[in-house]
């Protein structure tokens, strides 16, 4: 089956993943799909093509966050001059992938079927705490937005909207209220302000930190925070 996809000779193959818990039991959570489409071959001849693609992303997985779901032509990868400023962001590979993505004529084949298994509750990015895990995505993807699209407001906004889908402000802010220290809460507020969110609203939710922590074991809130931290 994989060979039928490889026949397209795409520069990038992006497959979805099957999420499981530590027990390898599948998690059924449709919003975790990378894109809201079935299998599709994308040709990026211009910025409008890229903007349409970004509008279909439901997660930063659609913009290459999950390395295990990517296949890329070696010559495309090797042709990119790596920017060392991405070392330490946890997403250095995304700089290379976005550079390929922005190459005129780039072909991306999205495979909606999961071809890899992601074992959840086993996130190495979380070793510095749940709050830091949330911030990692903002640090890297806001930098990517500025580095690649600072001269194209429409495309930059489309890219930033993917981050907002991954980290919706209310649920993410509630999670940060539970787990973050004062510096981490301030950073989150600043990041959302850069994304055009109401900073006063963010800070109001963050001020309910003690209350949020007290009720975080309520099933609904626990599910929200668990979903956002992943």
Protein described:
- With 230 residues, the chain is an alpha+beta fold.
- It has a domain at 2-130.
- The protein is 49% helix and 13% strand.
- The protein is built from eleven helices and four strands; from the N terminus they run αββαβααβααααααα.
- A four-stranded mixed β-sheet has the order 2-4-1-3.
- α5 runs antiparallel to α6 (153-166).
- The model has no long low-confidence stretch (mean pLDDT 88).
Roughly what is the average pLDDT, rounded to an integer? 88
Ranges where pLDDT stays below 50 over 5 or more residues in a row are none
In terms of structural class, how would the helical and strand content be classed? alpha+beta
Q: How would a textbook summarize the main sheet?
A: 4 strands, mixed
* Percent range for β-strand residues: 5-15%
The SSE order reads: HEEHEHHEHHHHHHH
- Radius of gyration over all CA atoms, rounded: 18 Å
**Count of separate DSSP helical elements:** 11
What distinguishing features does this structure have?
13% strand; transferase; four-stranded mixed β-sheet; 230 residues; globular; Abequosyltransferase RfbV; 49% helix
What layout of secondary structure does this protein have?
Blueprint: H1 2-6, E1 12-20, E2 40-44, H2 47-55, E3 70-72, H3 74-78, H4 92-101, E4 106-119, H5 130-149, H6 153-166, H7 169-179, H8 182-194, H9 199-206, H10 209-214, H11 219-229
Parallel strand pairs: 1-4
Antiparallel strand pairs: 1-3, 2-4
């Amino acid at each position: 089956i994989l060979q039928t996809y490889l026949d397209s000779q795409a520069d990038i193959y992006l497959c979805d993943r099957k999420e499981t818990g530590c027990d390898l039991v599948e998690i059924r959570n449709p919003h975790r799909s990378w894109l809201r489409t079935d299998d599709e071959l994308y040709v990026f001849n211009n910025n409008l093509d890229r903007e349409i693609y970004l509008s279909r992303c439901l997660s930063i997985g659609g913009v290459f966050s999950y390395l295990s779901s990517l296949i890329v032509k070696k010559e495309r990868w090797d042709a990119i001059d790596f920017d060392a400023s991405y070392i330490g962001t946890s997403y250095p590979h995304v700089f290379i992938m976005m550079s390929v993505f922005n190459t005129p004529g780039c072909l991306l084949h999205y495979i909606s079927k999961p071809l890899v298994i992601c074992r959840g509750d086993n996130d190495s990015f979380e070793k510095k705490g749940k709050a830091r895990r949330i911030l990692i995505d903002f640090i890297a993807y806001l930098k990517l937005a500025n580095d690649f699209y600072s001269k194209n407001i429409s495309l930059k906004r489309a890219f930033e909207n993917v981050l907002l889908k991954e980290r919706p402000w209310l649920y993410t802010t509630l999670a940060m209220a539970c787990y973050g220290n004062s510096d981490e809460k301030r950073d989150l507020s600043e990041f959302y302000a850069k994304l055009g969110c109401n900073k006063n609203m963010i800070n109001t939710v963050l001020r309910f930190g003690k209350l949020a922590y007290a009720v975080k074991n309520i099933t609904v809130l626990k599910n929200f925070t668990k979903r956002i931290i992943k």
